[in-house]
Amino acid sequence: MRVLVTGSAGHLGEALVRALRDLRFDVVGLDISASPFTTEIGSIADRSCVERCIDGVQAVFHAATLHKPHVATHSRQDFVDTNISGTLNLLEEAAKAGVKSFVYTSTTSVFGDALVPPAGAPAAWVTEEVNPQPKNIYGVTKAAAEDLCQLFSRNNGLACIVLRTSRFFPEEDDSREVRETYSDENLKANEYLYRRVDIEDVVSAHVLAAEQAPAIGFRKYIISATTPFLPEDLADLRADAPRVVGKRVPGYEAEYRQRGWKMFPSIERVYVNERARTELGWRPRHDFGSIVERLGKGGEVASPLARTIGSKGYHAESFAEGPYPVG
């Protein structure tokens, strides 16, 4: 089967191309940058390029995007051109070509201000039912592209699945305070409790979504590592996260103590992946418990695929303050 992967030179794009090639798919990799995983160099904002690349394709994996780190270096119009107009080009050409499955890589950033409850309130239990409140042009354009997917499913019969992925990038955190408080491995391990997912699991979710899109039609799914927390933990998570983690993942303290690591004192939200596990049959392999176990055996936080792909960064230039500027 012939499939199109947009953003093929990027972190997720490369991972998808690797996995789909291993599954013996005929993969068209589209990106503005050349790479071993890019077969067509061009922009999704170029309609003629999209039309050429989508010829004969049965499934589209749309991972190309401007990301949050680009907010400070790109204009709002750049975000509209890539994240909205580019997605519209792909949807229109996919509908015209009779594509069977369209999988759109979105982000939990669309939730925006809905992610941080008021002071003194319990942590937020974030499911697909939470109403997005985007707080920057990145979130606004990703949410708008989600709506375009729903429109094309409704009006054109194009099977579209939206995957709202949590953090899977390997780059350092953009907060200087966070970087100075926690080692990078410590930080990422902590995040698997509530806001991170491994690239291997993101890829498996995309493959399942493409397989099942024709039967589903349209649906949005949160793609994040399975949390050990329960709704009854939310108040305590905000007040004393280490105690809750110790209750839900007994034994993590010894591994952390050995490494000189620290747990976050407070956790303000929890991403819930239950819908994806129930409806897609998705079985993420990497979560906080499995990572603690792996560390105890001398392993690493990142999966083999994550380590193979490594860090790509978001900009050609470097910055004095952190891995990328904050806008």
From TrEMBL:
One protein family per Pfam: Epimerase
Domain NAD-dependent epimerase/dehydratase: 3-212
Domain of life: Bacteria
Protein's UniProt name: NAD-dependent epimerase/dehydratase
Organism this protein belongs to: Mesorhizobium alhagi CCNWXJ12-2
